[in-house]
């Protein structure tokens, strides 16, 4: 069975339960999950709204990143989903989860997965601040 159990870029709300269920594995002694949410400020400025956009290649790039993590760590199960579209404060923007035989491996693999996703998958964040200014942030940085 493929260790990459769930990947997606979605315009609908993300589910922690779905992702956690996808990585359930009896061979794993450690499972980590990271949930990224929309925060109320960035750069010390209040955020009023934001939206994510993805390049058509984003799903393929997400798979490439996931495959590299699965090859570099003893992953027994992996999942990653990212939201696109308009999000409100507190909404879940991204979830990654990794299961490995041991906790240290799971933590390291999960950190690599989210960091590489943010750096390499072409997803962009447009955030609008309370003062009316806005900014585009590349690769969800």
From TrEMBL:
EC number: 2.8.1.12
Its job: Converts molybdopterin precursor Z into molybdopterin. This requires the incorporation of two sulfur atoms into precursor Z to generate a dithiolene group. The sulfur is provided by MoaD.
Superkingdom of this protein's organism: Bacteria
Pfam families found in the cross-reference section: MoaE
One term of GO molecular function: molybdopterin synthase activity
Secretion signal span: none
GO biological process: Mo-molybdopterin cofactor biosynthetic process
Protein name per its UniProtKB record: Molybdopterin synthase catalytic subunit 1
Catalytic reactions on record: 2 [molybdopterin-synthase sulfur-carrier protein]-C-terminal-Gly-aminoethanethioate + cyclic pyranopterin phosphate + H2O = molybdopterin + 2 [molybdopterin-synthase sulfur-carrier protein]-C-terminal Gly-Gly + 2 H(+)
Subunit (UniProt): Heterotetramer of 2 MoaD subunits and 2 MoaE subunits. Also stable as homodimer. The enzyme changes between these two forms during catalysis.
Swiss-Prot/TrEMBL keywords: Molybdenum cofactor biosynthesis, Transferase
Spans traversing the lipid bilayer: none
Protein family (similarity comment): Belongs to the MoaE family.
Organism: Nonomuraea muscovyensis
Record-linked InterPro entries: MoaE_sf, Mopterin_biosynth_MoaE
Pathway the protein contributes to: Cofactor biosynthesis; molybdopterin biosynthesis
